[in-house]
Amino acid sequence: MSIYLNSDSKVIVQGITGGEGTKHTALMLKSGTNVVGGVNARKAGTTVTHVDADGNDVELPVFGSVAEAIEKTGADVSVAFVPPAFTKDAVIEAIDAEIGLLVIITEGVPVQDSAEFWAYAQGKKTRIIGPNCPGIISPGQALAGITPATIAGAGPVGLVSKSGTLTYQMMFELRDFGFTTAIGIGGDPIVGTTHIDALEAFENDPDTKAIVMIGEIGGDAEERAAEYIKAHVTKPVVGYVAGFTAPEGKTMGHAGAIVSGSSGTAQAKKEALEAAGVKVGKTPSETAALMREILQSL
């Protein structure tokens, strides 16, 4: 089992002919993902050639729209490698086509655009992950995004993280146990899938035995996740909050990492999580060690 993405998922790539789209389509195929085509209105009717996990050449059709791609291939997942200026239009197109899962890798999407397409998605069929994220991987099944598929195999851990690089580090640290699914939700102020969404899905997934949650300074997502864990999550959760050493008043890296007063600090988030029964590490490695102890006792 896994959440949101599995070996049956049929993936298309919006921006399949661009530099990033080309590179990561190749890596997704190599990891065993069932990539069935792509979208670029200007190159509709052409094909792109790649190599699948078995080393065979595959010709992927390029469609003029997401709706056409779904109609012709049965795709239910799209990964968007689209420049920031065009991301909002690409997202709305995917929502209108009723794709089940849309992973937006693009960094630098204007917050207003994210707010508009997030609002547009409410009540519709598309789950959004991102923007500004590494996407989602269910090891041994499928990859939708840019997470290196060779870090870790399948196992009992569910991982949700604001940070891409910390997603990779945690997967590497716990590679001997493995993961059901690892999701990088992105660090922008407005993201589609939240910590709480992922926690709920992991709680309901019978193969996920324990959960790692990685947050960072800024906003109140981790505090809200702590409240949710306290009320609804029965599985063990360990956490890490990036930014303990951040100088006060500085914004760090992600646009969402903006601290106001005492709310949003790493310490405030750590205390909220610990009050909900979450063990919080001071470093990623310490967090992995806490998870290791839990997994060995299960």
The radius of gyration computed from the alpha-carbon positions, rounded to a whole number of angstroms, is 19 Å
Number of domains: 2
Let me know the largest β-sheet: 7 strands, mixed
Question: What is the percent of helical residues?
Answer: 25-40%
Give the integer mean of the pLDDT values: 95
- Strand proportion, as a percent range, falls in 15-25%
Q: What is the CATH superfamily label of the largest domain?
A: Succinyl-CoA synthetase domains
Distance between the termini: 18 Å
Query: Which fold name corresponds to the CATH topology of the largest domain?
Result: Rossmann fold
Q: Tell me the CATH architecture of the largest domain.
A: 3-Layer(aba) Sandwich
CATH class of the largest domain: Alpha Beta
Order of helices and strands: EHEEEHEHEHEEEEHEHEHEHEH
Number of H/I helices? 9
User: Which structural class should the secondary elements be placed in?
Assistant: alpha/beta
Strand order of the largest sheet: 3-4-2-1-5-6-7
Write down the overall geometry.
globular
Number of strands: 14
* Spans where pLDDT lies below 50 across 5 or more residues: none
